[in-house]
Amino acid sequence: MTRVDKELAYLREHKGAVIERWHAKIRKAYPGYYEGASVLLETERYFEYLISLHIPKEQHEILSKAPEWAKRLVEHNIPLHHILRSHHYWRNAMNEVLAQNRELDPVSTLLLLNELESRMQLYEETVCHIFLELTNARMTEQERAITQLHDDRLNLIGKMAASMAHEIRNPLTSIKGFLKLIRESMTHEDDSKIYRYLNVVENEFENIHMQITGLLSFSKKRVIEEPFVHVTPRQLLDSVVSLLNPRFLNENVNLTVELLEGELLTIQKVAVQQVISNVINNGLDALSRIKHDKEMGIRGYMRNDAYVIEFSNNGPAIAPEIQLTLFEPFVTDKVEGTGLGLAICKTIMQKNNGGISFISADDRTTFTLTFQINEQSEA
């Protein structure tokens, strides 16, 4: 007999007690996961592998079944830590059974446990390696499916945007033409109220035009590609602020504007104005949730080779759970929001050799538009 034969024979004789102890521990830790005859069958096979010391662990047939077992774990969404905990419970169960016999030699018992530990580790490493490979493959496939779904949704939006532009721009063009005719046919003696009404209608017309331009950034087949033009920051901002001025007044928001003059931006003016309109409106929406003094500041300045425009407000912070994905489509914390506004803004800014970013804290949120002066070119 070898030095551990007696201990090994005792362990084999008490196979049922070992398995029962392991099963009790694993069921207590993870109720509902390890029930049924198939689990017990696999458990008996594993026990035979452990005590078959006459078969080198690397050559045991159970290793060929490790992929099947790992696949089953993945299919049943069993976490990796279950495998590690199971190893621990096997060690405890065998220790407890061997400790019941005080006639066993402690040194031989320790030698046996070391050999059993070595076999457990090999099987655990094999299963964990395959488990991780299968899990990574599944995650890659899921990411591919999510990406495809995401792309399909964007393509659908693009088709809807192109269709909408075709259906809406034609009547808008007619409306704009008739507004021009009305204005040209009026005399100075006509009611000044009519002039004011015409100004309101024309301003709203421009707002609708900007909204359509923004949505078209998702369309691969743009109806009209807007040209790049040279504008100053003041020219870019003034028309947007004037359109939104009634909202600033109605909602008691104090607006301050500080712009560094003298720079020229080469951009798609209407598209970028849509970005500015979206950012300002989002800020006003945030300010509507506070009762104290409402403030919004717009600041423009040069930073290295870029012109930067900051839009800050003292409203509440953006929800932390959406900050990392705020510029992705369909991400929003508004009840009736589509989650497309900032995604459109990001697309427009990228097309205009710029960028959009933000920082948000409890007392202030700032969105930053960056325009690369040296990289801008006419298209």
UniProtKB/TrEMBL annotation:
Descriptive protein name: Sensor histidine kinase RcsC
Chain segments annotated as transmembrane: none
Keyword Glycoprotein tagged: no
Organism, as annotated: Paenibacillus solanacearum
Classification via PROSITE patterns: HIS_KIN
Signal peptide feature range: none
EC number of this enzyme: 2.7.13.3
Protein's UniProt keywords contain ATP-binding: yes
Domain of life: Bacteria
InterPro entries per UniProt: HATPase_dom, His_kinase_dom, HisK_dim/P_dom
GO MF annotation, one: phosphorelay sensor kinase activity
Ranges for domain Histidine kinase: 163-375
Keywords: ATP-binding, Kinase, Nucleotide-binding, Phosphoprotein, Transferase, Two-component regulatory system
Pfam families linked to this entry: HATPase_c, HisKA
